[in-house]
Write a structure and sequence with these properties.
The structure holds two protein chains of two kinds.
Chain A: H1 12-31, E1 35-36, E2 42-44, H2 45-49, E3 62-64, E4 70-73, H3 78-88, E5 94-103, E6 114-123, H4 128-144, E7 151-156, H5 157-166, H6 171-180, H7 189-198, H8 216-230, H9 239-250, H10 256-270, E8 273-274, H11 276-289, H12 298-309, E9 319-323, E10 336-341, E11 351-355, H13 359-362, E12 371-377, H14 378-385
Parallel strand pairs in A: 1-5, 7-9
Antiparallel strand pairs in A: 2-4, 3-4, 5-6, 6-12, 7-10, 8-9, 10-11, 11-12
Helix pairs in contact in A: 1-4, 4-12, 5-6, 8-9, 11-12
Chain B: E1 2-7, H1 13-22, E2 27-28, E3 36-39, E4 42-50, H2 55-61, E5 66-70, H3 71-77, E6 84-88, E7 96-103, H4 112-124, E8 130-133, H5 136-145, E9 152-155, H6 163-166, E10 171-176, H7 180-184, E11 187-198, E12 200-205, H8 206-211, H9 213-232, E13 235-243, H10 247-254, E14 267-271, E15 281-289, H11 293-302, E16 306-311, H12 322-332
Parallel strand pairs in B: 1-4, 1-5, 8-9, 8-10
Antiparallel strand pairs in B: 2-3, 3-4, 5-12, 6-12, 7-10, 7-11, 13-15, 13-16, 14-15
Classes of the chains: A alpha+beta, B alpha+beta.
Chain lengths: 387, 334
């Protein structure tokens, strides 16, 4: 028997090295006031689908257990931690930290399918000070391990998501674009359109159009009669729903014009990257131009306040950049997002996170509770701490 | 002994036996209750008759070395990075498609994207799109790749086509050759809902073939026959009489349309006419793709041909067996 692709055995020193990193980070987080918690490796599959943009669903290790429950190995910690918070009924604010394996199915035998996350969440504080605290903790943790000259990239998904809503795109298109915004930073714009066309979000037009002068009520009535006359099979659906969706589709929510508009905005947005001051000025100008689409100055002001709080001491002397194209793969983020990189490393971040103010309520919390957090990919951290 | 699994049930049973026979490898099955058989001329091969659905697994685990199975079944069952590989993907029979079908009154759903929209809308209402299929892995991959992320799979038992009517599933994904059964059950295919276009294929266990030269040699013989038979089915051989001054002048006329002048070029030979002395007749033979038959006949007529006979070759062997060379490369990859 051999171990599965994408997993690894850790023996002797190999185990000790990763373990000492975990212990060191957890002790550091404890000293900063973050209490250790642990959650199950196995969770209801629904937990991870609730607020995922769908993308994550395709990478879950999900199965039905002998009792008939749909369960998944956790692909990340945040959803579990928030579920535990809601279930325990503790009162905010709480500062929690965790460490353990997460599982994501990746294509190709060389990609890791199990890796280790060490992270922290701050639940119940929506202030920029909390943003600075968590961003700072992520940098200080790495500095504590001896990593120097870190690079911090901070963005804000608010500008992105509010604008996509403002363009009147369907929910599926919004998820899609929010998840792929980062790819626009490299000149693959056309590919994105192609990819959207492949999943039916671009260039899809209705086969027929309603004749002019037909009121929505009349149209509904006519289509309903036609459907009844067909005598076809509706299955488990209500004919009413079929007619409504059919008529809505004639309006083609994601018509290319709207998608093109959103894409040109996104292209401008992702160019805003670099030193904080010029990026903030650029963002202000961009927001002013797109004000009609529901954008406001909120994201810019939040970022400005956050940047002011990120003193060199706070971020362990990391170099601070803003990157408006930074959009994390998980769809639950609502505000500030960030990644921390090792020096000179353009590749994968050592860790990252952000603010997800809607998640507590989405997972059954009684009231809106602001929250944010981050996690390191410990194997990436390990590869940078080897000397 | 090379163990070669053939489908014992399914629509692939009879065509597989016919195909083997047409390849000059007739299968002898002493009785329909016997689950083993032999191949004339290949004493080192034992035929095992097994359920189609089991064949990929048998080849995967190595209890069979080779097997004939629908390509869609193999794609569904094969283990990523496992020892089972395809040796020939198109044996030329058992053609079918794995398709997504929905109730025909769903006028708001004509493409997979519409299904993706519906699954999102239902999710908001706490409803799930229920998909019945025997191809869980292929369906999950296809749906995820096309943006359908919220669905549940319903276990298939018996005829799936009635599931939407009976109400235990909303959507079915199944193989169809003609679409008739789907239509009769008031289902329609989605315009872009074809997961796999499949036919019978030959699969093998690469570890078994790598370790045992005798098995590899038996496989080579089978591949040679299968490939040459398949290739031959795509070509016809035309022979025509032509009057001319010399072989070269006849050949020149025939090769005016190079793509109708045979694989390499025409074979030209003297015809010794019955009314000696010679009338200057030559016989020209060309092998051309089957679908170019009539253009080739017209071309031969245009350059003076008559008495054109057409024959189908039983086998067409190239300088080497491509499928076998591919297999050797695959085995060499470690």
């Amino acid at each position: 028997m051999r171990r599965l692709d994408g997993t690894r055995d850790r023996l002797g020193r190999d185990w000790a090295r990763l373990n000492s990193l975990t212990v060191s980070l957890r002790e550091f987080f404890s000293r900063q006031g973050y209490q250790p918690v642990d959650t199950p490796v196995l969770e209801p599959t629904d937990l991870f689908l609730k607020k995922s943009g769908g993308e994550l669903a395709s990478r879950l290790y999900a199965f039905t257990d002998l009792g008939g429950h749909g369960v998944s190995l956790r692909p990340e910690f945040t959803s579990s931690v928030i579920r535990a918070y809601v279930q325990a009924g503790v009162s905010p604010p709480v500062r929690w930290q965790y460490a353990g394996p997460v599982f994501r199915y990746e294509e190709g035998p060389d990609r890791p399918r199990q890796f280790t996350q060490v992270g922290a969440e701050l639940i119940g504080d929506g202030s920029p000070r909390a943003d600075a605290e968590v961003v700072g903790l992520a940098c200080q943790g790495l500095a504590h391990l001896g990593l120097k000259a870190l690079r911090l990239q901070v963005g804000h998904v608010g500008a992105l998501t509010r604008l996509l809503a403002g363009f009147g795109l369907s929910e599926r298109a919004r998820w899609f674009l929010a998840g792929r915004a980062a790819t626009l930073a490299v000149p693959t714009h056309r590919d994105l359109r192609e990819e959207m066309a492949r999943v039916g979000l671009y260039g899809r037009s209705a086969e027929v159009a309603l004749p002019g002068g037909v009121s929505p009520g009349e149209a509904h009535h006519v289509v309903e009669r036609l459907l009844a006359g067909m005598g076809g099979l509706v299955g488990s659906r209500d004919p009413e729903e079929i007619v409504t969706r059919y008529l809505a589709r004639l309006e083609a929510a994601d018509e290319p014009r709207r998608v093109d508009g959103a894409l040109s905005f996104l292209e401008e947005l992702v160019k805003l990257k670099g030193e904080p001051e010029p990026v903030l000025a650029g963002l202000r100008a961009l927001v002013a131009r797109y004000r009609g689409f529901g954008l406001d100055s909120g994201p810019e002001e939040e970022l400005r306040e956050l940047v002011a709080l990120l003193s060199p001491e706070q971020v362990a002397s990391a170099q601070v950049e803003l990157n408006m194209g930074l959009a994390r793969g998980l769809a639950y983020y609502t505000g500030m997002v960030f990644d921390v990189f090792a020096p000179g490393d353009g590749g994968r971040p050592l860790g990252g996170g952000g603010r997800y103010d809607g998640l507590v309520k989405a997972l059954g919390g009684a009231e809106d509770t602001p929250a944010l957090g981050f996690a390191y990919t410990l194997e990436s951290v390990e590869s940078r701490t080897k000397s | 002994m090379l163990n070669f699994s053939l489908p014992s049930n399914s629509e692939l049973h009879d065509p597989s036996l016919r195909f083997m026979e047409s390849c000059g490898l007739p299968v002898d099955r002493p009785s329909s209750r016997r689950y083993t058989g032999s191949v004339a001329g290949l004493p080192q091969v034992q035929v095992l008759f097994q359920r189609s659905a089991d064949i990929p697994t048998k080849v995967e685990e190595g209890s069979a070395d080779l097997g004939i199975v629908g390509l869609e079944r193999f794609y569904e069952d094969r283990r990523e990075g496992g020892p089972a590989i395809t040796l020939l993907e198109d044996l030329g029979y058992g053609q079918c498609e794995l398709v997504v079908a929905v109730p025909d009154a769903w006028i708001d759903v004509t493409s997979v994207a519409d299904l993706a929209d519906l699954s999102v809308a239902w999710r908001e209402q706490g409803r799930e799109l229920r998909v019945v299929t025997k191809y869980a892995r292929l369906v999950s991959r296809f749906f995820y790749r096309h943006g359908v992320n919220y669905f549940s799979l319903v276990e298939a038992a018996g005829a799936m086509e009635v599931a939407p009517t009976m109400g235990y599933a909303d959507v079915i994904v199944d193989i169809t050759a003609t679409g008739v059964t789907l239509r009769e059950n008031r289902l329609k295919m989605l315009s872009d809902g074809t997961l796999v276009r499949a036919q019978a294929c030959l699969i093998g266990n690469r570890l078994a073939l790598k370790e045992d030269p005798a098995k590899l040699e038996a496989t080579r013989v089978i591949l040679e026959r299968f490939e040459a038979r398949r290739r031959a089915s795509k070509f016809v051989s035309l022979t025509s009489n032509l009057r001319g001054e010399s072989e070269a002048s006849v050949a020149e006329r025939v090769t005016r349309l190079p793509d109708l002048a045979g694989l390499q070029g025409p074979t030209v030979g003297r015809v010794f006419g019955k009314g000696y002395p010679d009338q200057g007749w030559y016989a020209v033979t060309v092998v051309i793709p089957r679908e170019r038959l009539m253009p080739a006949v017209e071309h031969l007529r245009t350059v003076g041909g008559s008495g054109i006979t057409v024959a189908s070759p039983s086998f067409l062997f190239e300088g080497e067996c491509e499928a076998y060379q591919r297999l050797l490369q695959e085995l060499a990859r470690g």
